[in-house]
Structure prediction request, 488 residues.
Amino acid sequence: MHKKLLLISNSTMAGEEYLAWPQPYISDFLNSEKVKKVTFVPYAGVGLDEESLEASYNVYTERVQAVFAKLGFEIESVHQAANPVKMIQEAESIAVGGGNTFHLVAKMHETGIMQAIKEKAETGTTYMGWSAGSNVACPSLMTTNDMPIIQPESFDCLNLIPFQINPHYLDANPEGHGGETREQRIEEFLVVNKNMKVLGLREASLLFVDGPLMKLLGSRPLRFFAFGAAPEEFAPGSDLSRFL
Amino acid sequence: MHKKLLLISNSTMAGEEYLAWPQPYISDFLNSEKVKKVTFVPYAGVGLDEESLEASYNVYTERVQAVFAKLGFEIESVHQAANPVKMIQEAESIAVGGGNTFHLVAKMHETGIMQAIKEKAETGTTYMGWSAGSNVACPSLMTTNDMPIIQPESFDCLNLIPFQINPHYLDANPEGHGGETREQRIEEFLVVNKNMKVLGLREASLLFVDGPLMKLLGSRPLRFFAFGAAPEEFAPGSDLSRFL
Prediction:
């Protein structure tokens, strides 16, 4: 069984409903493997309910459930399992939602599902992630845009792909702002991690991995970064298998 | 001897020369203590020369030297010391430059200067930082905007002030971008760190700490965040001593 991954830049376009734009891709991806039930990881979702993290995960799961139900898929969440590792090991398909990447990675290590998801996805269980959920498919969390609100045991992630994704890739700063641009940040990453490649995945785009094949889907070009080389642009529909 | 800190949001306004706007504050701060020589920490500066980190620190130090020389102050850099901890222990004044906060914190722990700077600044040696250099004065790096390009030994920082600064505080995302706003990110931090306060320090503003007193300087208001409360704005010139 080979890897099947759907790595989505962002859940939602500004002004649209939650998880609206990627729905056709999600349906195709899951239907191609005849998936009925998806095991959801909500740990990136902090603050959806200020009462508690548990309440926040509940709100998040319900929100995702509503979208997936409409598409004909059932959702169960690891945060409601007595044994999250066991739920992952028995999963038909796995979806990791966006939010805060540091919190997601901290909880994935703490609960042991980091290793369990890795084993499942490597042996062919469909894996889908958006935003933080795409970031954790990478070797590490080192190209996240998120605030480090909690210190995870390790920055290491699932390593399902041999490169880093920068989700929500953004070309410019707001006018008049002097902070680093996204491109400058990625270049700093490459100075310290010279052998790594970074794929800047703009909003409304996603990567589809099917064994040895990888394709850029969605409506916007991708920006590719390697140390010491000028960035390259790839058009939607490009075959990116060479990066696997 | 009480603490004397100058915590600057950002080195440079868009379109201006390097370290231009904070120069009057830097001069006043150092002259009030009759400082002649400043010990500089360049470890946030990665990629100023792609050849090597050492070369990057050299470029950074020269750039800072040029500005400080004009103001009448000498600069020496810890990266050129045989024993960085000893150089800090003998420092007349300390300045920590901006750049990548994770890289800065990793190197400060690795070289042992994190603890050495803490001891010096707590006993009255003037401490100045801009951007990442302001962030490391906080209890942790958890409110940085930077990319986690390297995993530091710990997220803990100098803890010279009992709250977190978010430097380069920014009100809005570029139009049409669906990623989290800065305010949303800080609110996520507060969900997981409920007892901490965050001071959103907009560009062109800075905090001046003189023992039990703290004042907002510069030209823009500060945005204050606490868990479960609406954010508050403080005008330039405000006395913020209550937060110490």
Notes: The CA atoms of residues 62 and 82 of chain A lie 19 Å apart. Chain A has one domain: 4-163+202-220+235-243. The longest strand of chain A covers residues 164-169. The mean pLDDT of chain A is 95.
